[in-house]
Design a protein that fits this description.
- The protein is an alpha/beta fold.
- It folds into 2 domains: 36 residues; 307 residues, Rossmann fold.
- 42% of the residues are buried.
Length: 408
């Protein structure tokens, strides 16, 4: 029967043959791919099938998949939802109010000057051998140097500031290189502490403080209402990729330097016993995590929508070194290891269950990072809290503040 059908309708025979060949091809290809994966990847391939419940949350994407031990995370899904804070907005980005370009433009002028070239030459001539030695030493000095090298923060001038202008809501400072940057402020007469609130890509200080409604959910304003002074500087909201080799800064290093200079101002204008908290969302969480490790003036880190989901890379200002520990450090930090280095400082990690799980390195999602971190630090639970909430790539400020104040 089939022979007669194929003879009478050759096009049908070609179609069936093509379909069968296609099925065999994809079955063989997928099998070969899975068999070739390292053990942890094939484990992820087969086990990431359980999802967090949607619970009718307004979202366009699916809740992110859980990497392993999913049962241990279900109880973390609270009933809170940031969508309740601002019912008249969608998850949008608006960086039109950011004035970070002023800072970058002035750094361009400084970086292209002969004075910067002379200073950089002097710096490398006097300290090159000492820095190479530090890279292979064990301990915090080596760690800080290596992290600074990865992110491109190796300035030859220490933190400094000069007030250009300030009032109750806006602060303009000249940083260590003489380039000015803006910080919006919310202040109280007797604050419980100081919060440096960092926006992410597509954001601005206006969003953080509630002047623009975006995915930050005005988290800085909530901290202010809870009794804290808030400083929200302009950081790189547009994702501009740039390096200033003479200044020892990459695009990430530029913002790290800016925050260090803002901290220099805060230290000069507040009593020393007030806690300094650094809170950031998205790219801002990356900066908050870095500053939390490198700067001893920080007492607590609030990482929102980050979950250590960035890879450290060699920067254009890196020094040559045979230090093989750097390769291990790169992998460790990208798997939540930066949180290990933040401890024993207070730490709150906040992630929405609809946040993009594919942002992690090689398919590792944010839930895996949190699970991996907690498994390594069971004995240190008194110093950190994890907030897994029903939401997207956004902040959950009321719960983040509550969890921070819960840590003693």
């Amino acid at each position: 029967m089939y022979k007669k059908l194929f003879k009478s309708k050759p096009w049908f025979a070609i179609l069936i043959t093509s379909l069968m060949v296609s099925i065999v091809f994809w079955v063989v290809s997928i099998t070969a791919l899975v068999m070739s994966l390292p053990s942890w990847k094939s484990h992820w391939f087969f086990e990431t099938v359980m999802r967090l419940p949607n619970k009718n949350y307004k979202a366009n994407d699916e809740p992110q998949m859980i990497y392993s031990s999913p049962d241990t995370w279900l109880y973390r899904l609270s009933d809170s939802s940031p969508f309740n804070y601002l019912s008249d907005r969608s998850i949008v980005q608006d960086s039109s109010a950011s004035l970070h370009n002023i800072y970058l433009n002035e750094l361009f002028n400084v970086a292209n000057s002969a004075a910067s070239a002379k200073e950089r030459h002097k710096y490398f001539s006097n300290q090159l051998l000492d820095m190479k030695k530090a890279l292979i030493e064990k301990g915090s000095k080596s760690l800080y140097s290596t992290i600074g090298e990865y992110i491109g923060y190796q300035p030859s001038i220490g933190p400094a500031h000069q007030v250009v202008t300030k009032n109750e809501t806006i602060l303009w400072l000249n940083g260590r290189f003489g380039a000015k940057f803006r910080t919006l402020t919310l202040q109280k007469s007797s604050p419980k502490g100081i919060v440096i609130a960092l926006h992410g890509r597509g954001g601005s200080p206006e969003g953080v403080l509630g002047k623009v409604k975006d995915y930050t959910n005005s988290f800085g304003n909530f901290w202010h209402q809870a009794g804290y002074d808030v400083f929200a500087p302009d950081v790189n909201s547009r994702g501009i990729r740039i390096n200033f080799p003479r200044l020892g800064l990459t695009d990430t290093g530029v913002d790290v330097a800016l925050i260090y200079d803002l901290l220099d101002y805060i230290k000069d204008n507040y009593v020393s016993d007030l806690p300094i908290i650094i809170a950031g969302i998205s790219y801002g969480s990356q900066l908050a995590e870095i500053i939390g490790v490198l700067n001893n003036n920080i007492d607590a880190v609030i990482s929102i929508g980050g979950a250590s989901r960035f890879s450290y890379i060699y920067s254009n200002t890196s020094l040559a070194s045979s230090n093989t520990d750097r390769h291990y450090l790169n992998s460790f930090l990208d798997n939540g290891g930066i949180y290990d280095f933040i401890l024993p400082k207070k730490l709150v990690i906040s992630v929405g269950n609809h946040d993009a799980g594919g942002w992690g390195r090689l398919g590792e999602n944010k839930i895996f990072v949190l699970n991996s971190f907690e498994n390594r630090n069971i004995s240190k639970k008194s110093k950190y809290r994890i907030n897994l909430f029903q939401g997207q790539h956004e902040a959950d400020p009321l719960e983040e503040i509550r969890l921070y104040e819960q840590i003693k």
